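yo, SGNH hydrolase-type esterase domain-containing protein is done. seq:
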Amino acid sequence: MIGVKRKTIVCFGDSNTWGYNAETGSRFDEETRWTGLLASSLGSEYRVIEEGLSGRTSVCEDPLFEGLSGLSYLQPCLLSHSPLNLVIIMLGTNDTKERFGLTSYNIAQGIVRLARKARASAAGISGQAPEVLVVSPPAIGEQYAQTSIGKAMGSQCSGKSLELAEHLGSLLAGEDIHFADSKLHVSMNEIDYMHLDAEGHRLMTEFMRGQVASILNGR
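structure:
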């Protein structure tokens, strides 16, 4: 690929971008994670950069764990990987935690704030703005409350995650930012009901590949 400029995509997300395996408590390998599968399926003309962090929120500082807010990290992250063609932001699952006290609308506001920051950055080609895609994650299953993560997450998480896409779509209407709802195509696992299993990663790959093709190749 000497002399050919690859299209660069940054995937900015939480544990479902990092690849947390709820069955083992470890990380899925590169051949299983949707980011790795996406890189393979897109081929050598693309560079897919994983920027997933377990526990990451959109704008909230977690009182229990430091360094998880996406707001302060986004700008240096994008500039360090520039020039970029596309930034994919898939957050919101951790923002539903009861300790943050956010409504689903508040969570959407935080994600939109991040998306606008990415779109206003100079991390694109020749210092221009990169394309930005906001993806609403799969909804948390109601059964999460009966699992080992139920107490840490708190109440009403599944309801807030289910409502998130509607608010994101409304807030992003008319913005120069792309939006897609993954819950129409992908579901969480049946272990903790808030992470992708191997099949979920495969389905997320198919979903993301279609979004990338539409945005970067116009089809």
